[in-house]
Design a protein that fits this description.
- About 15% of the residues are buried.
- A hairpin with a 5-residue loop joins strand 3 (about 30-40) and strand 4 (about 45-55).
- The protein is built from two helices and six strands; from the N terminus they run E-E-E-E-H-E-E-H.
- Strands 1, 2, 3, 4, 5 and 6 form a six-stranded antiparallel β-sheet that branches.
- By secondary structure, it is α+β, with helices and mostly antiparallel strands.
Length: about 180
């Protein structure tokens, strides 16, 4: 295993204007490499590269990452605006199949997580009311309320549990 130059984790970064390269991955799929200035510590910035793939299901995710960086969506190969926004990146290490040496990946994060089972407004209000009550109890020195085991006994409001936990998911779908 090779020595890791940077700790795995999340960092702030900004793309470098004019430093994107367009090419093909070893699999033949189109890709773009984006050079980023990554803030490793309060006083240390390093230049690292993130690779974006556009084959299969990866295309929409890569486009979302380019837009997060500030790309204006034009067909200009200079990728206008790519250096406009500061973003979060994750540095992680993996060992590619058939290899013995680790490689470092720099993944641009978009900050757009989606809940697989989002709460509807009534569930959110019930959950937050119960959460506020529990926070007040703990702040007053009381021990945390016991959490019930997940199961079908929850009612639709979630109010029969200290945190509003285990309420069934809302019937509406989450939309952007």
């Amino acid at each position: 295993m090779s020595e890791r130059r940077y700790q795995p984790g999340y960092y702030r970064a900004r793309a470098i204007a004019g430093a994107a390269q367009h090419g093909y991955a070893g699999t033949g799929g189109e890709q773009i490499s984006i050079d980023l200035d990554v803030q490793i510590s309060e006083q240390q910035w390093v230049r690292l590269t993130s690779y974006l793939s556009f084959s299969g299901n990866a295309g929409p995710i890569s486009i979302e990452r380019l837009v997060a960086l500030g790309w204006d969506g034009s067909n200009d190969t200079a990728m206008v605006g790519i250096d406009k926004n500061e973003v979060d990146v994750e540095i992680k290490y993996r060992t590619p199949p058939g290899k013995t040496e680790e490689s470092m990946d720099v993944e641009i994060k978009t900050g757009r997580a989606k809940m697989s089972k989002p709460m509807g407004d009534p569930e959110k209000r019930g959950f937050m009311a119960n959460l506020a009550k529990e926070a007040a109890r703990i702040s007053a020195g009381a021990p945390p309320s016991p959490r019930p085991a997940p199961g079908p006994a929850a009612d639709a409001s979630g109010t029969n549990f200290p945190h509003g936990a285990n309420a069934p998911p809302a019937q509406q779908q989450y939309k952007l």
